[in-house]
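TODO from last week: model GntR family transcriptional regulator.
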Amino acid sequence: MKLREQAYEKFTEHLLKREIRPGQFVTQRELVAITGMPLGAIRELIPRLEVDGLIVTVPQRGMQVAHVDLTLVRNAFQFRLFLEREAMAVFVETADDAEIARLRRNHEEVLEASERGVDEELVARAQAVDWDLHDTIIDALGNQIISSAYRVNSIKMRLIRQEATALSDMLLRPVMEDHLGIVRAMEARDVEAATRLLAQHITNARNRAMGL
């Protein structure tokens, strides 16, 4: 892996751990200290971060990490909805039964575990199951351009979740049950129902993030 790619992974890792915070101003030297990567790699990294919208250059102030605001929420969710809705239509028609069964099993196991109580470990597990369903739908397209763009947007989605929509003990069961409804539509190979339920699921998450 090239140093620039390592630096990108280090940056996003620290960003999602909130060791680099949305809206924070940073210098190249500070990014070197935070990521542990050499200055040359950081200099190569910055243009990619700017293209991905994770850093913006503010005149006379320097580099600012993207901050979570209503514009980011609207844009990130709209992008996600457009991609996932189209990907879902393809997935329902082409996914093999074993893959759909795996998705069902993952969600049912989380729901069964939640009946014994919800703790931080189960919430983290549920969040991973949540992301896996959406990533699986996108990656099944076999289109690296789409998958890469989706992954960048996913970083922004996770920043939004940290601010407003992180999966919690109160949301765990409703979200898992929403997903199971989508999985049942997949099993029935019902494209219309699957895309409609997915769109509603994403819209609900957007509304929570916007405080609606």
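Done. Strands lie at 25-26, 55-58, 62-65.
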